[in-house]
Amino acid sequence: MATDTLTKWTIDTAHSEITFKVKHLVISTVTGKFKEFDAAIETDNEDFENAKITFEAAINSIDTGNEDRDNHLKSDDFFNAAEHPKLTFVSKSFNRSGDGEYRLIGDLSIRGTTKTVELTAEYGGTVRDPYGNTKAGFDVSGKLNRKEFGLNWSAVTEAGNLVVSDEVKLNLNVQFTMN
After folding, report:
1. pLDDT attached to residue 5
2. pLDDT given for residue 41 in this prediction
3. pLDDT tens for residues 4-33?
4. Which is nearest to 88 in space by CA: 97, 96, 75, 79?
5. How many CB atoms lie within 10 A of CB 47?
6. pLDDT per residue over 70-112, tens digit each?
7. Which domains does the chain have, with CATH numbers?
8. d(CA 29, CA 24)
């Protein structure tokens, strides 16, 4: 049901997680996260169809559980946090693809390069919390090729295996609060 005004939602960072996974040496997976991020949704209906979504993450907040690796990721070999302190996402479309499922298409900017990406969003529902706040939850996932965004560092083992895969899996478990 459409309304005459936009409903604005802000991310609840205490109940949200932004993670990524990358194969290391082709045999295991390293998981990382961004500890500082912000996001917002604007919608004119209750089911979020055609919602406008924005997201940003601070590169210096990257955390893989290993300080040396985190510093390498922040360096010019990867994200170059000194010159590109944030990654951003701005939606182009957010359309229902099934029951509680959406196709999210938008422009992702990393390291000064912007590419259109497609993500899958699963709507967890909307509820009122014990404090009277209206909350909505989503699980968002997708894949991207890091080299398309200028994250080109690579090394090869003696056996010919890549040290770091080009494919990065994204998983955002996010909760929003209605303003």
Report:
1. 84
2. 98
3. 689 999 999 999 999 999 887 766 788 999
4. 79
5. 13
6. 999 999 989 999 999 999 999 999 999 999 999 999 999 999 9
7. 2-178 (2.40.128.110)
8. 6
Q: Can you tell me the distance from the alpha carbon of 123 to that of 105, in angstroms, rounded to the nearest whole number?
A: 15
| CB-count exposure of residue 128 (10 Å: 0-12, 13-18, 19+) | exposed
Q: Who's near 1: CB < 8 A, 6+ residues apart?
A: 45, 46
Give the per-residue pLDDT at 47. Answer: 84
23: nearest Cα among 165, 126, 135, 179 = 165
Answer yes or no: pTM beyond 0.70. Answer: yes
In the structure, what pLDDT confidence band is assigned to residue 159 with cuts at 50, 70 and 90?
low
Distance of CA 74 to the CA centre of its chain: 17
Give first-to-last CA distance, the chain, whole Å: 19
